[in-house]
Amino acid sequence: MTDIATAVTDLLFTPGLSLEEAADRHFAPDYRQRTDGHWDDRTGFLTHIAHLREVVASGTVTVHEELRDGSCYADRHTVEAVKTDGSRVRMEVYLFGELVADGRFRRIEETTLLLSGAEADREFGRAR
Question: Strand pairing partners for 59?
Answer without folding.
Answer: 81
